[in-house]
């Protein structure tokens, strides 16, 4: 079979500063990851990982990032991710780190994991929310996610649930 | 899923910072955390849910040998930030593994500074060659919440340190649990230092020593 096999790394950007997530961008993250791999694994690492490397999905509200890499070199990428310490955008430097949630062979498996993860996060947010309006918004998202589980429109749930949750968080 | 533990959080005396750190660790998926109190020469660890486990920090060879074979410790924490002036010798390390003493590698200097990173990796590889990856724990000497990494990432760091993939995952989960239980058995059954991975102590503290002796006589 002539097919390039990839590994998809699902990561979450964790930071103290709420502006850090909002300034997440394709190119910024791409450059950052490449620099980090070059620092940790040197010239060989940077070259090997940059062949199939791409940022496939980016959600600025929840800080979820999906990175793609070739299967032979995904360990170079995954072992270099802990060394990311800051995100630099337009001259502002925000300290942050990437937390790997899941490694999958296809986008679909990562999506399934992300849906379950988001559901769990919504429930955790429900416990922590402080006022009535937020509580109602989150409960609505939770019931909507349970209904959508039966239908096939799960992808919409991903984004809409995230935005509601992100608004509730801020 | 296995229980993930981070057995080294260095905090000063600031309670609020400590709380932020522990919350961050819980959010990342750690179920057990040990807070390190630096007490002059010896370091004493206090755990949140379970009783005290003792670990010791050393820099010279004689202390290595003594602590592996005789001292009553659970974990030997290796300062990875300088070029160690000695090589690890195989006999004392094997004795330590038999006794159940674990070796701890710290990774937060590696995240902060690039020269430290080099020393960390070289010392870690050195240790791996002698002990073949058994009884190793990886933990962060984190002082701020941004220095902790999630368990999956720490297992990947283990790959960099020369562990195999299985060993790296064990370094974050099962070996940590073994060290904690080792500390527990030390407290409950004096004089018996056994490499028990899953002891049934806690209830019936005073019974284990005489029971063992009885069974030996009966055989």
Automatic annotation (TrEMBL), chain A:
Q: From start to end residue, where is composition biased (Acidic residues)?
A: 161-170
Family, as annotated = Belongs to the eukaryotic/archaeal RNase P protein component 2 family.
User: GO annotations under biological process?
Assistant: rRNA processing; tRNA 5'-leader removal
Q: Which InterPro entries match?
A: Pop5/Rpp14/Rnp2-like, RNase_P/MRP_POP5, Rnp2-like_sf
User: What cellular component terms from Gene Ontology apply here?
Assistant: multimeric ribonuclease P complex; nucleolus
Positions of region (Disordered): 149-170
Q: Which organism is it from?
A: Erinaceus europaeus (Western European hedgehog)
Q: What is an example of a GO molecular function annotated in this UniProt entry? A: ribonuclease P RNA binding
The answer to keyword Cytoplasm applying to this record is no
- Cell location: Nucleus, Nucleolus
Subunit structure as annotated in this protein's UniProt entry = Component of nuclear RNase P and RNase MRP ribonucleoproteins. RNase P consists of a catalytic RNA moiety and 10 different protein chains; POP1, POP4, POP5, POP7, RPP14, RPP21, RPP25, RPP30, RPP38 and RPP40. Within the RNase P complex, POP1, POP7 and RPP25 form the 'finger' subcomplex, POP5, RPP14, RPP40 and homodimeric RPP30 form the 'palm' subcomplex, and RPP21, POP4 and RPP38 form the 'wrist' subcomplex. All subunits of the RNase P complex interact with the catalytic RNA. Several subunits of RNase P are also part of the RNase MRP complex.
**Key words of the record:** Nucleus, rRNA processing, tRNA processing
User: Function, please?
Assistant: Component of ribonuclease P, a protein complex that generates mature tRNA molecules by cleaving their 5'-ends. Also a component of the MRP ribonuclease complex, which cleaves pre-rRNA sequences.
The molecule here is called: Ribonuclease P/MRP protein subunit POP5
Automatic annotation (TrEMBL), chain B:
Provide the residue span(s) of the region labelled Disordered.
197-219
Q: Does the keyword Ribosomal protein apply?
A: no
Q: According to the UniProt entry, where is the signal peptide? A: none
UniProtKB keywords? tRNA processing
| InterPro entries, alphabetized | Pol/histidinol_Pase-like (IPR016195), RNase_P_p30 (IPR002738)
Provide the protein's localization: Nucleus
Primary localization class, coarse: nucleus
PANTHER family, alphabetized: RIBONUCLEASE P PROTEIN SUBUNIT P30, RIBONUCLEASE P SUBUNIT P30
Q: Which family does it belong to?
A: Belongs to the eukaryotic/archaeal RNase P protein component 3 family.
Q: What name goes with this protein?
A: Ribonuclease P protein subunit p30 isoform X4
């Amino acid at each position: 079979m002539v097919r390039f096999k990839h590994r998809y790394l699902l990561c979450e950007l964790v930071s103290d500063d709420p502006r850090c997530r909002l300034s997440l961008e394709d190119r910024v993250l791409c450059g950052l990851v490449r620099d980090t791999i070059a620092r940790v694994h040197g010239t060989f690492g940077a070259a090997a990982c940059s062949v199939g490397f791409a940022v496939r999905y980016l959600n600025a509200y929840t800080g979820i990032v999906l990175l793609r890499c070739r299967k032979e070199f995904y360990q170079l990428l995954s072992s270099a991710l802990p060394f990311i310490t800051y995100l630099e955008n337009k001259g502002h430097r925000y300290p942050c780190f990437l937390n790997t949630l899941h490694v999958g062979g296809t986008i679909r498996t990562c999506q399934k994991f992300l849906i379950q993860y988001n559901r769990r996060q919504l429930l955790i947010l429900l416990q922590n929310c402080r006022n009535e309006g937020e509580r109602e918004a989150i409960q609505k998202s939770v019931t909507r996610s349970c209904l959508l589980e039966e239908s096939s429109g799960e992808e919409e749930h991903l984004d809409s649930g995230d935005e509601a949750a992100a608004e509730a968080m801020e | 899923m296995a229980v993930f533990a981070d057995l080294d959080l260095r905090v000063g005396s600031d309670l609020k910072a400590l709380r932020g750190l522990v919350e961050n660790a819980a959010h990342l998926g750690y179920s057990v955390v040990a807070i390190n109190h630096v007490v002059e020469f010896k370091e004493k660890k206090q755990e949140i849910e379970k009783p005290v486990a003792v670990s010791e920090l050393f820099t010279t060879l004689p202390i290595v040998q003594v602590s592996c074979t005789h001292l009553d410790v659970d974990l030997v924490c290796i300062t990875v930030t300088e070029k160690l002036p000695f090589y690890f010798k195989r006999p004392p390390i094997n004795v330590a593994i038999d006794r159940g003493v674990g070796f701890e590698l710290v990774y937060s200097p590696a995240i902060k500074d690039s020269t430290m990173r080099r020393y960390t990796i070289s010392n870690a590889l050195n240790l791996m060659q002698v002990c073949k990856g058994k009884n190793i724990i990886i933990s962060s000497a984190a002082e701020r919440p941004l220095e902790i990494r999630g368990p999956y990432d720490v297992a990947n760091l283990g790959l960099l340190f020369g562990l195999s993939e299985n060993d790296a995952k064990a370094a974050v989960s099962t070996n940590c649990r073994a060290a904690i239980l080792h500390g527990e058995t030390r407290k409950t059954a004096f004089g018996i230092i056994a490499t028990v991975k899953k002891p049934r102590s806690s209830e019936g503290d005073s019974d284990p020593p005489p029971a063992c002796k009885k069974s030996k006589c009966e055989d």
